[in-house]
Amino acid sequence: MSHGWGYAATNGPDKWGENFPIANGPRQSPIDIVPGETAFDAALKALTLKYDPSTSIDILNNGHSVQVTFADDTDSSTLTGGPISGKYRLKQFHFHWGASDDKGSEHTVAGTKYPAELHLVHWNTKYPSFGDAASQGDGLAVVGVFLEIGADNPQLQKLLDAFDGIKAKSTQTSFANYDPSTLLPGCLDYWTYDGSLTTPPLLESVTWIVCKESISVSPAQMGKFRSLLFSGDGEAPCCMMDNYRPPQPLKGRKVRASFK
Ligand SMILES: [Zn+2]
């Protein structure tokens, strides 16, 4: 891993443990969610996502994914309810996707892979900043949404239209007034479990909230994700795809469901 982590054979998920031993820790993500082995928990509350479109700042190719970043200096865009207590602020959202439509999601459902997965990353405001929260057991809450092949998704299109300006690694462009709640499915039933970041440093600080219902994406829209590059300007072009970590061992954890 002399040139940093990535998703290639030489620096991919199988190698991350060399520099980040927590890769083999007790609460790693993603996992395979087996609905028949989850437990309905009547105490789980409904999710409340309040997002202010004016907090979206920019869209970035960070060399691993495409990410939209939000202003998080006030409680303008927050997640409350669900399995968490207190208030969590939206920091960013990003995606993971495959080289073809038969793979790409990080979580799987009874072994089923989706072509992509959206992650909305929030941090617990009981800590002073995202950076402080990221290493705490209750520091982060990530809402995961599967993308499933179907009709063109107009809510995704504004995002995809910005990709031409951020093809290469370490490029970004302003992305104002975007409401991420338009990317959520109509039904917010979810599974939840204690896990980790799915990229190095793989910190075990994430309360995962994975939506049961997926959102649609067309094959052409999936193609647009794959037009992004892992490589930077001046490097040999390398298409960004298969930027997902496979499911990790459950190690005795229980997955709870908000629905029967
Ligand atoms: Zn992610």
Automatic annotation (TrEMBL):
Domain Alpha-carbonic anhydrase: 3-259
Cofactor(s) it depends on: Zn(2+)
Keyword annotations: Lyase, Metal-binding, Zinc
E.C. designation(s): 4.2.1.1
The keyword Metal-binding appears for this protein: yes
One Pfam family of this chain: Carb_anhydrase
GO CC entries: cytoplasm
UniProt-recorded Gene Ontology molecular function terms: carbonate dehydratase activity; zinc ion binding
Enzymatic reactions: hydrogencarbonate + H(+) = CO2 + H2O
Biological processes annotated in GO: carbon dioxide transport; regulation of pH
Keyword Methyltransferase: no
Function of the molecule: Reversible hydration of carbon dioxide.
Family: Belongs to the alpha-carbonic anhydrase family.
Descriptive protein name: Carbonic anhydrase
Gene from which this protein is expressed: LOC105910902
